[in-house]
Amino acid sequence: MKATRFSELEGNSSGFWGLLLLLGAVLAAGLGAAGYMEHFGHYVTGMDNQIVWGMPHVFAVFLIVAASGALNVASIGSVFGRTPYKPLGRLSSLVAIALLVGGLTVLVLDLGRPDRLIVAMTKYNFKSIFAWNIYLYIGFLGVVALYIWMQMERRMNRFVPAAGLVAFVWRLALTTGTGSIFGFLVAREAYDSAVMAPLFIAMSFSFGLAIYILVLMAACRGAARELGDALIARLGRLLGIFAAAVLYFTIVQHLTNLYAAEHAGVERFLLVEGGIYTGLFWGGQVVLGGLLPMALVFRKTDKPGARVALASMLVILGGMAQVYVIIIGGQAYPLTLFPGMEVQSTFFDGVVAPYTPSLPEIVLGLGGMALAGLVILLGMKILRFLPDSLADAAIDPHHRAAE
Amino acid sequence: MTTASNDSAPEGFDPVRRRFLSTAAAAAGVALAPGVMLYGITRPTPASARPLDEAVSPTVRWGMLIDVNRCQEGCDKCVTACAEENGLTGHGRPRTDAQWIRKIEITDPASGASKSLPVMCQHCADPPCVDVCPTGASFKRADGIVLVDKHTCIGCRYCMLACPYKARSFVHETLSDQKSHAPRGKGTVESCTMCVHRIDAGRTPACVEVCNAEAGGAMMFGDLNDPDSEISKRIATYATTQIRADLGLDPGVRYQNL
């Protein structure tokens, strides 16, 4: 097997410039939406004093969770030594950084005072999981940047396994931190559980890989570089396993809550009577984002491309549905101040809070996704992230033997 | 000499004893008066005025006791007094307008018995909002009052998710005509300050004042750390409850007859 050659995107096709323009326009719209919300205040959004985290957080948490998962492809190559994954490591690291930058941008622009970002960077309350996460996010960017350097610089190649291990451990800590933002909320019945951390790790594996697969397929198609069917089928099967892991931890999450009689109300709300949340859970997360992708990728076929691409899109849609149910559904269910009592107040105690995402919120979220796309596109244009060929024979020494 | 004194005074009179007693009374008066005076200054209102350059005393823990039996259904004088005192003017949008204190009507579905009570920031000894705040803008003062530093709050709203009492509001739109003693800011989180500006001036919170003056007198304010304070005596005498006591947050607001 020859050493893998990498090269920059040519980046002079109309497709490249069209995509660049489109992503730039969506990002500009997102920034405009953020400016609009900041100027008038959050009352122009669907958020209120009941649902304090809305659609921007759904996008941001999805992107941040997916970011750590996108790095897994690199980890499988350099930490777990799987040869066919090694040429995929650079792009995997780039996607990870891009998704995190996109997610954090949405998170920051949805703050009540985004102009005080410097305060968030200089004043820390070390008891806050949020403050830990700021370190975890910034550290992740640094660690992955080093990891990319070691993968790209021949003299540094020997440090790749060590850097890969650090990045892998860091990404586990990062997703543990993101899950614990919810897991540490003792007062909210839908959260307050240690299982949120492993659930978020499983989600990150699944969402991150789905995005990675789509980016890889689009990049190879756009740059006319070969992409082996066996590799795609392999990535697809891995996605199926990750999707199953998400379902497994989801079952554990809800079973744990169902067992406690005091949480029967919130579980009945999410799983049976919650309207949009119940629909998104069963239809969006479980069927479209879980069972269907698994059925698609585990069926043997000679041309897996379309199936794996469809499965990846479904995992992303199901993932958005899942994060929506966790974040919005978990807040919509009222806090229990007086167990066993019926309550009523002018501040909407005891009633399910309604929430309709407003257009600016959605546009801001899409802007974050566009930013991630821009970082990936420009990254591939400027540096050598994409292998010249990902044909099965070129990357897997056992490929022919297996046939 | 004994004869002379017997002539001028009734029988049994002892001038030495009288002089001694009057001197002793005067001395006692001089000794006790400042104490009584000080007591008079410190105790007529539960809080004593604190010079602004003096640190808040950690020996004090301000708290409230609310007698639910005295709280009348339909009365919201505490709510309007709070809004008036702190300049919480609404925009006619109840979902996004700030509410620092609200009245909750609770009904037992089994018996149909109902009660009405005010709920505001419970000023926990272990406040979850302070734990989760990334910048430390949510903080607890030495005297137990939980506040938000408007200069370091970045408006992430994590404290609102963490608060078990739904006590916090986010400023959703531009404000005007603010009260100088209760500054607020668009894009930051806020909640009941226990009228900290009044407490520092030796007065009681606005809700407590109006409840005692114009309503059922259900609210009591005082120092939970002082065993001789009225509020401590009441808590020591009667059974009181904390909302979500199971969370172990040790709230500074207690309820009686809940």
Sheet with most strands of chain A = 2 strands, antiparallel
Helix content of chain B: 25-40%
The mean pLDDT of chain A is: 94
Q: What gross morphology of chain A would you assign? A: globular
Strand elements of chain A, count: 5
3D architecture notes:
The complex is a heterodimer of chains A (403) and B (258). With 403 residues, chain A is mainly alpha-helical. Helix content of chain A is 68%, strand content 3%. Chain A has one domain (6-333, 346-397): Formate dehydrogenase/DMSO reductase fold (Up-down Bundle). Chain A has a two-stranded antiparallel ribbon. In chain A, helix 4 packs antiparallel against helix 6 (129-152) and helix 4 packs across helix 8 (196-222). The longest helix of chain A has 31 residues, at 229-259. Chain A is globular. The two termini of chain A are 16 Å apart. The relative contact order of chain A is 0.18. The mean pLDDT of chain A is 94. Chain B folds into two domains: 2-42; 62-256, Alpha-Beta Plaits. Residues 1-7 and 38-45 of chain B have low confidence and may be disordered. The longest helix of chain B is centred in the first third of the chain and has 28 residues, at 15-42. Chain B contains eight helices and ten strands. At the A-B interface, helix 5, helix 6 and strand 3 of A face strand 2, helix 4, helix 5 and strand 6 of B. Strand 3 (342-345) of chain A pairs antiparallel with strand 2 of chain B, so a sheet runs across the interface.
